[in-house]
Design brief:
This protein is of the alpha+beta class. Helix content is 49%, strand content 15%. It has four domains: 224 residues, no CATH class; 98 residues, Distorted Sandwich (Calcium-transporting ATPase, cytoplasmic transduction domain A); 128 residues, Rossmann fold; 123 residues, Calcium-transporting ATPase, cytoplasmic domain N (3-Layer(aba) Sandwich), CATH 3.40.1110. Strands 1, 2, 3, 4, 5, 6, 7 and 8 form an eight-stranded antiparallel beta sheet that branches. A seven-stranded mixed beta sheet has the order 9-21-20-19-10-17-18, with helices on both faces. Helix 12 runs antiparallel to helix 25.
Length: 740
């Protein structure tokens, strides 16, 4: 009975772990848009038994096996990671793997010694002691360095007692359970290897250097102070410096939190990691690489204290609390019933079993969340989420979208809105920055006929100057851009339009002016686009009695307006990156447990300070590297679901705790009233672990039972499936599936 229960439980645990931790082969990311057709044909002739068996086996594999070997979490981590190699094992992983091999060898030899040839049990002792070295070291650190009695102390006493009394099989089971728990736990933690967050993960490997009037491509690392670097529209600025030539519109929100693009001219400073929306500039390099503002933020980040590094998982914490009562009871048992009974009491400690069941539950929920498009990099976040009572959102890029939308269109000199919009769209037709996309999107929605852009000639700066040929003898010069651009073109802006601009600017709106043949014909108002799901998500969070805040580097007026639109009472505006972290710390000192959600370089220090940090896929590399949780669908739609999953995890862990306490209590009672020995305690422990493991895997099994019939991991079907049936050939077609 002992051997059967031990082998079955260890086999199930090992097999389950292998399935959960198996490394997938590298795959290319991205999906081509195509039409997928799934055809299931039933022929009129006699069905093939082999084919039916193969189909049944494939169905069983897809429904029962695949969910437990899902690699979506590993794939998601690689997708959002700025590290070049995520497959290399860390030193901790290597040591844990070696200990697990040694522990498995000890268990195999001890089992062979019990079943076949008793001297084999003695051969298990060196392997057991090899694993115990780490346990003994931890016990020494716990007792004499940290002045506390932890699980490693109990492990040391138990291992020494079992080996000393000749219970080699019990000792091998103990070290195997210890090694398995360490291996499982390591899988639930974020083992990111970089000491300095890679804020240049999105930078090109070379830059354009101006040398003697010639543009030369040189490695980024070779830049020197005083070099002149050329940057074109759509590119990321690689250095901190001063514009020596050219004018441009620059998106700095990732660094400063400003929602509106900033216009720059010669003599103005620019910063690495910001994006040139329009124009072409020559930059005199002032700071490169390690000296740039972005990397300095990264250095502050790497030095920022992270309390999560010392945070124990819930299972570890429960296990630690069980040590002193177990040792006390064991010490009392020793003089009364003897050494074997005392060791049996030690083996009743439910902390041993929780060390395995806790990370196993974590792994189950981590896999479950990854299949739902939520990447949780550190399993400890699940337990922290249940304590969160305050949600803090970054404004720009988190509550709002990168692309603004067209608000009002103001016309002048008798032109219609559609005509003005057509001219603006013609000028912006081949531009890729967010403002151009907003104008073109509105023009397309209105069904406007945009003139062929091939007929245009560009002069790019604060805006675009286009010469549009209507015929061989007639052409129009269209100027589209900011107020500064229009004034630089010596075009008069009427007082009425200026007043509208001033009023809109106070509300956080920006304006694009449109002039034709040096006469202003109107302005297009652009407003920040609030994420469509934001209001509903915030309402649901508030219904859970959570306080919601906005922190923004943007101006007071647009921040206040956004807060009012979303029903948020508390907000902080014009906040510098380091001050964001101070505000998080201030809320924590008030007794609040804070979850911060951000996407920019300016958010990373606050992300690290928060109890739980969340970012969105597609955010800056430094944000997704720092955040504990990444929403892979690039929206906030699944934010509430994150908290629901955490609540379910807590409930699952409570059931696990009961599955470990009951066998322990039965063992203690058995020792005193039924003369139980170590063998009995191992059997009861295995029953408890088996029950707990079944409970740990239950959420994933339920998820598979409720999963839609047609499901493909990683694909979003944006249109309903059209199913047609034929009486002789059953054919299922998926029409116009769009991969997003």
């Amino acid at each position: 009975m002992l051997l059967i229960s031990t082998l079955v439980v260890s086999g199930v645990m090992y097999g389950g772990f292998k399935m959960l931790s198996k490394k997938p082969k590298k795959e290319t990311t991205g999906f081509k848009k195509k039409q997928y057709i799934l055809v299931a044909s039933r022929r009129k002739n006699r069905p093939s038994s082999v084919s039916n068996a193969s189909a049944s086996l494939e169905t069983f594999k897809e429904q029962k096996i695949t969910p437990f070997i899902s690699h979506s979490r590993d794939q998601q981590r690689r997708e959002i990671s700025s590290l070049s190699d995520e497959t290399e094992m860390s030193e901790a992983e290597k040591k844990t793997h070696e200990d697990f091999i040694a522990a498995s060898t000890a268990l195999g030899l001890a089992t062979g010694g019990t079943l076949l040839y008793s001297p084999l049990s003695l051969l298990s002792v060196p392997f057991t002691i090899w694993v115990c070295i780490a346990i003994f070291r931890d016990a020494y650190q716990s007792l004499f360095k940290k002045n506390r009695v932890g699980m490693s102390v109990l492990d040391t006493i138990f291992m020494t007692g079992t080996i000393g009394t000749g219970h080699y099989f019990a000792a091998s089971v103990g070290v195997w359970a210890y090694a398995m728990s360490r291996k499982l736990l390591l899988k639930t933690e974020d083992q990111s290897k970089q000491s300095l967050i890679n804020v240049f993960g999105e930078q090109a490997s070379f830059v354009w250097l101006l040398s003697d009037g010639i543009e030369i491509a040189v490695p980024f690392e070779s830049l020197l102070i005083g070099d002149i670097v050329i940057v074109y529209a759509g590119e990321t600025i690689p250095v901190d410096g001063t514009i020596s030539s050219g004018t441009a519109s620059i998106d700095q929100h990732i660094l400063t939190g400003e929602s509106q693009p900033v216009e720059k001219e010669p003599g103005d400073d620019v910063f690495a990691s910001t994006v040139l929306l329009s124009g072409k500039i020559e930059i005199s390099v002032q700071k490169t690489g390690e000296q740039s503002v972005a990397v300095q933020i990264g250095k502050i980040l790497s030095k920022t204290a992270d309390f999560k590094n010392d945070l124990q998982s819930w299972g570890e914490e429960i296990a630690e609390k069980s040590v002193l009562p177990t040792l006390t009871l064991g010490a009392l048992t020793l003089p009364i019933l003897g050494a074997t009974s005392a060791i049996t009491i030690l083996n009743s400690c439910f902390g041993f079993k929780m060390r395995i069941l806790s990370p196993l539950s974590m792994l189950t929920f981590l896999n479950l969340t990854s299949q739902r498009g939520i990447l949780i990099k550190d399993g400890r976040s699940l337990q922290l989420l249940t304590n969160i009572d305050t949600i803090v959102f970054d404004k720009t890029g988190t509550l709002t979208l990168e692309q603004p939308h067209v608000g009002s269109i103001y016309t002048y000199s008798g032109i219609s809105e559609n005509e003005l919009l057509t001219y603006a769209a013609a000028a912006e037709y081949k531009q890729t920055h967010p403002i151009a996309k907003a104008i073109l999107q509105t023009a397309n929605k209105r069904g406007l006929n945009i003139p062929e852009i091939e007929e245009a000639k560009y002069e790019v700066g604060y805006g675009i100057k286009v010469t549009l040929s209507r015929s061989a003898t007639h052409s129009e010069v269209i100027s589209v851009g900011s107020a500064r651009f229009i004034e630089m073109e010596n075009i008069t802006i009427p007082a009425k339009i200026k007043a509208i601009h001033q009023s809109g600017h106070e509300k956080g709106y920006s304006f694009v002016y449109v002039a034709i043949n040096n006469q202003l014909y109107g302005a297009i108002e652009l407003r920040a686009s609030i994420r469509p799901e934001a209001k509903q998500i915030i309402s649901e969070l508030q219904q859970r009695n959570m306080l919601v805040y906005i922190i923004s580097g943007d101006n007071e007026q647009p921040t206040r307006k956004l807060a009012q639109e979303l029903g948020i009472e508390h907000y902080f505006a014009e906040t510098l990156p380091e001050k964001k972290a101070d505000l998080i710390e201030k809320l924590q000192k008030e007794g609040k447990s804070v979850c911060f959600i951000g996407d920019g370089i300016n958010d990373c220090i606050a992300l690290k300070k928060a109890n739980v940090s969340i970012s969105l896929r597609g955010a800056s590399s430094i944000a997704t590297d720092t955040a504990q949780i990444v929403l892979m669908d690039q929206s906030l739609k699944q934010l509430v679901q994150v908290f629901d999953i955490a609540q379910n995890f807590e409930g699952n862990m409570k059931v696990n705790l009961m599955a470990t306490i009951l066998p322990g209590l039965m063992t203690i009672g058995g020792v005193y009233f039924l003369h139980f020995g170590i063998i009995h305690s191992i059997i009861l422990n295995n029953i408890g672990v088996a029950a707990g493991a079944s409970n740990a895997m239950l959420p994933l099994i339920k998820h598979q039972q409720t999963k839609p019939l047609l499901h493909s991991e990683g694909l979003n079907l944006s249109e309903k499936l059209e199913i047609t049936a034929d009486s002789t050939v059953n054919e299922v077609k998926i029409n116009e599936v769009k991969i997003s």
